[in-house]
Amino acid sequence: MSQYPPNPNNPYGQNPPDPNYDQGTAYGGPPPGQGSDPYNPYPNNPPAPGTNPNPYGPYGQNSPTPTPPPNPGYPPYDPYGQTVASQNANYNPYFTAPSAPPIQPSVPPRRGLSMRVILIAVIALVLILGGIAYGFISNNNTQQNNANATATAHANATATFNAALTATAVASNFPFSANLKLNDPLSDNSRGNGWATGNGCAFQANAYHVTDSQTNTFNPCAALNTNFTNFTFQTEALLTKGDGLGITFRGNANNNQLYRFMVFTDGSYNLVVYVDPTGTNARLLKSGNITPTPNLSNTNFIAVVARGSSLAMYFNQALVTTFTDGTYTHGQIGVTAMDITNSVEAVFTNAKVWQLS
Known about the structure:
Distance between the termini: 190 Å
CATH superfamily of the domain at 181-355: Exo-inulinase, domain 1
Shape: elongated
Largest sheet: 8 strands, antiparallel
């Protein structure tokens, strides 16, 4: 043993033992049970995470470089072979590549219709449709109004024409007027016409009765409150006994002035004008016979049409005779009965007067 301690810088002296020395690493493998990593000769210093434990192999030697596999897609490299450029007949070593096409400015995408535009379009559409509908309705209403106006005009024209025809027919046929001025059933004296009562003039059994018992006389019974000028006067009459019955018109009971139209049982008739109570100054205006001879015991219509001085006599609405006389122009209407040889009684109902123009 040396008297000098070992020199740590002496390469030939004995090195102190390495407390970290692992005999297993000196010969390529760790002792049994002391680590399983064949590439870490220093098991007490684990490799850093993510690094190769031993890039040089288990003993520090470089691993052999693997030979790359052949490339089936290309031929073996020939340093003296032709290049690709020399094989291209159009190869131009001075060719200048064309410049890139100019970049077109991007077109901004078209924006969708705004709600305002849509609303305006909807309103415009509604207005257009409303205008069309209004035009259609207006045109339809105009056509309907025209049709109604045409129909109304046609109806008015028809009504006017019919009225003219009716007026013509009325004016041409008995009673020659539609203007009824008096309509008295003669059942009583309630119509205000003032029919005379007493002295053989009376209302009985819903009718107006005229009687006369003195021979060769007649009894006039007037409607004292009446006064007509141009008119048609008609009444229904029947004879229960006696010789004749008739009507009076344009009369004045206070002065015994009147026209009298009388029809007798033998079918004869006469038209007389009386100017005073005596009858001696009466004038016979017309006389004649009705054929066939009427049956006065049945109800018959007796009438007169007076226009100015023109007088026309009717029996059962058939013309009997006409005459012109201007003695009286207006006055009262009335009824009468005549006793020539027998007492007389005549019954009258439904007196009517139509005014003539």
